[in-house]
Amino acid sequence: MCTLSCYLIYYQVKEVADSALDIFWQARRYGESWDALQPPASYLDTGGMLELEATSNMAFRHFVFDLIRDMLADIYQVHITKMTQVS
């Protein structure tokens, strides 16, 4: 059974992942490469957190950003592989 704190963590992670995904889709819309895409300062903004908490939060956000990049690359690679096998 998940407690209230479990749900809060879920929504915080979901918010960070959704924001990262939006950045990648925006780049894709304008034809930018995902390979060299870096998270913008607005995504990494820690708001007024204390130094240790801010550092942890930035590292977490950067990790999620890189994870989303890897997942999207894997998804597209599988799609491309399937498309070439069909033709």
Describe the structure.
By secondary structure, the protein is an all-alpha fold. Helices cover 76% and strands 0% of the residues. The protein has one domain. Helix 1 (4-29) packs across helix 3 (51-86). It has helices spanning 4-29, 41-44, 51-86. The protein has three helices and no strands.
Approximate strand percentage: under 5%
- The sequence of SSEs as H and E is HHH
Taking the alpha carbons of the first and last residues, their distance comes to 48 Å
Largest sheet: none
Q: What is the number of helices?
A: 3
Can you give the mean pLDDT?
88
In the predicted model, the low-confidence regions spanning at least 5 consecutive residues are none
Q: How many structural units, i.e. domains? A: 1
Helix content: over 70%
Strand tally: 0
Assembly category? single chain
Question: How would you sum up this structure in a few lines?
Answer:
76% of the residues lie in helices and 0% in strands. The protein has 87 residues and is mostly helical. Helix 1 (4-29) crosses helix 3.
Which helices and strands appear, and what pairs or packs with what?
Layout: H1 4-29, H2 41-44, H3 51-86
Quickly list its features.
3 helices, 76% helix, globular
